[in-house]
Amino acid sequence: MLGINLKQYRQFLTKNERNKVYLRKNTAEGRATADNKYKSKKKMMKAGINVPKLIARFKNSEEMENFEWNKLEGNFVIKPVSGYGGEGILIIRRAIIRQRADQPGFLMMNGKVISVEEIKLHCLEILAGKYSLHGTTDGVIVEERIKIHPLFLTLTKSGTPDIRVIVYNRVPVMAMLRIPTEKSGGKANLQQGAYGLGIDLASGITTFGIEGKGVEVRKIYDFGKKKMIKVNGIKIPFWKEVLETAVKCQGAIPGLGFVGVDVVIDKEDGPKILELNARSGLSIQLCNKAGLKSRIEKIDDIAVRSDEHGIALAKYLFGEKFSDKVSEKEKDKTIQPLEIIKLKIPKGFKPELQKSSIIKQGKHRVIEVRAKVDTGAFRSSIDRNLAEKLGLLSSEKILYFRHYKSSLGKHKNRPVIGISFWLKGKKVVTAVNVADRDKLRTKFLLGRKDLEGFLVSAVRTPASVAPTLNQKIKKNKYEK
């Protein structure tokens, strides 16, 4: 069992709902481009997006027969132009010379040898439409097989692990690491038996894992360490670049508002795009133990200003709390109704503060702020004046505006900003409301969204401790 409760399940995107989403967000032209690997590759190359090198393209059997197969040195991939679900993909590991130099054989990922004639036969099946998404005649592309990043070399004996990122409205909403297995035939496809590991969007660290269509796995084999390792805690290299590349892909193809982007990481060139999917599978929800539906609804009406803004939304709205637990060591998780948090000051910003009030938290500059714990509030909030003085209300820091109705019946828009703070040594990356708390003693309110893993004490802070807290607060000139 995956440990998904009914409340979580209701947040999941079903196949019918997914179809409604992509039909609403994806135009016919956008879907056609995504379904055609050759067209989408050309579009991405034009936009300056890194893709595997195209070796050859066959539109008919004559072009395929005239191709000089004996000049290929191995490490290439054969794909149907309009394939779906990993079907029809042939991955060649290297060339081996048989009896005659002009008749090489090729070694596949499963260790079997395949002849040129067998490769040609496979191409003929592709051309006939055996693996076509639409059941019609198809084309063949031959492209380079990337040089696998060292981290991924240890996770599989065959095939190339890749990263699937779901992008909606220019925002990465979910991601997973797909690891080929012997069962999947060296293909990173969950439907064929590959592993799927959920990835925390904020940190690029893996969280949960499944095999195939939904069997939970807690450990996988590391061929480098020669032992089983936990599926959680694997740090994806080039994570920022992976998200940037995925978002850029959506912008490169007009009319594609909901797309699955498959990214591979080359050990020399970094992230490269394998292909795009206008009908991305839904198993990604299982290995993240989270629903696409709830995430899409959160950003459906937000006007995303730029690629950077889209990535910031993903980081602050969809960062998983699980990733914090990977490195968590603190034992004391009981918090009082009033707590001191360490609020991160944006990099490069020079607040008008006394130097003594700015302290260090690792490599970051922070300021101590007294916060009130309120489990009745879902989202945390920060005082507008404090946020402004710390440089948190600049246009690039505001994620979006939340509409609300005041107690006087007036309709207003309240900014929601992304911040980082430390509570009891635990780093929290989150989105908070900006509110007018000028007349209140506490300039920060901690909502239950950011209290996961903590136990809130019902007992007031002892009188002997209160003066110590008050002394700290007086050092902060923004606190009254």
Overall CATH class of the largest domain: Alpha Beta
With helices defined by DSSP (H or I, 4 residues minimum), what is the helix count?
14
Number of domains: 3
Strand neighbour order, sheet with most strands: 11-10-9-8-7-14-15
Fold-level CATH name of the largest domain: D-amino Acid Aminotransferase, Chain A, domain 1
Radius of gyration: 26 Å
Outline, from the CA principal axes? Answer: elongated
Mean pLDDT comes to 85
The CATH architecture of the largest domain can be given as 2-Layer Sandwich
Based on secondary structure, the structural category is alpha+beta
Q: Looking at the chains present, what oligomeric state does this protein adopt?
A: single chain
Poorly predicted spans: 322-331, 461-480
Percent strand equals 25-35%
Reported for the largest beta sheet, the result is:
7 strands, antiparallel
The CA-CA distance between the termini, in Å, is 51 Å
Helix fraction, binned, reads 10-25%
